[in-house]
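Hi, here's the filled form for the chain we discussed.

Project: internal
Contact: R.S.
Residues: 333
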Amino acid sequence: MTGIVFLLCLGLILSALFSGAETGFYRIPRLRLVLDALQGDRVAKGLLWFTRHPTFFVATVLTGNNLANYVISASLVTLVYRLVPHLADLLAMTASVLATPLMFVYAELLPKTVFLHRPDRILRAVSPAFFAFAIFFLPLTFPLWLLGQALALLREESAGQWETVLARRELKRILGEAKAAGVLRPVQFHLAEAVFELGTLPLVQMCEKPDTLPVIPRGISLAEAFSISSARQAPELLVSSPDQDGPTAYVRTIDLILRGQAALDDPRPLLILPGTYTALEAFVHLMQADEPWARIEGPGRQFIGLVRRQKLINLAMAVPSGREGARTCLQFN
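And the returned structure, exactly as it came back:
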């Protein structure tokens, strides 16, 4: 009898541990984990490892919760059979039904609430036990991790992407709290929100349409270049070559005025960016290189399209809905 009661209590404790750890893990400030890990904190290093391998964390939590629920159910039914064997069939079902809401409140909801309000302190206290169970469940969680890796390869995802998502979510939460506390003005918060939106927007969705771009062929005369620049009111003219797909260079209108035909004979090469970049990564590279345009290429240097720095600036400065201005990338023909 004592062993059954012990198993019942153990199941409740395990359910509280894994349910609360799940909430605490997603609530704990990742920035603090990074700083503590840099100072040699082993618990912080362990939790930071789970943020970089979220499949292991999710698999451990699910396995632990299922184990806890099985232990609770088996212990409860066994206890009823021991206490009232002649009415065990009826009372076992009744006890399970009556115990379900109590287990939900005290073994799941209450621990989640406690971890929600004190994620750092309580998660640190239970982390050794959680790490031990993570190692114990490894024969079960490792196949799940392999399955997750296979699905990630099919979708061309990596653990670094999930780490970036968690970091971005944490930083957005911090900025939201700063705005609520009056540290950030609304315009500053909207600017940060727009930058976050650029960080999730694929670069290929930011390409300009072919019919909106001022493209000139290589070898065009200076008078024709001036005519096109004046008609399109373009500060730069994109230069295409007959032997390559899409523009590969550009010439500034101011260079046409200052250098004349020499600017057309020696145009500036376009900055080349991979199509796997996000809009924010492209924006950073364009600003660092001080280039107004970038050529986007895919595998095998396949031409995808062009992106304009000013368009990214406009989206970053606009109301926080960066996807509204995005247009589908079309190839140049």
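Let me know if anything looks off before we file it.
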